[in-house]
Specification:
The protein contains three helices and no strands. It has helices at about 20-35, 40-45, 50-75.
């Protein structure tokens, strides 16, 4: 997206040349590749790979918990 050969986990998206239009593209790419919804606001707040990855991990864990709870709801306890 940034046209760079390498991006470190601590590199800031905006310091590497990212801007609001690229942030929109990044959210779409995350949605398409990872099936996760990330707001543009979150890209601004979590502007490094490390922070964004941690956030995506949380989203994934929340999704798994919701699925597990839905599965438990099917049992009569």
């Amino acid at each position: 997206l940034l046209g760079l050969d390498r991006v470190g986990i601590h590199d800031n998206f905006f310091e590497l040349g990212g801007h609001s239009l690229m942030a929109v593209k990044l959210t779409a790419q995350i949605r398409d590749d990872l099936s996760a919804q990330v707001s543009i606001r979150k890209i601004f707040e979590l502007s490094t790979v490390e922070y964004l990855a941690r956030y995506l991990d949380v989203i994934q864990l929340q999704r798994k918990l919701e699925e597990a709870n839905a599965e438990l709801d099917t049992f009569d306890l």
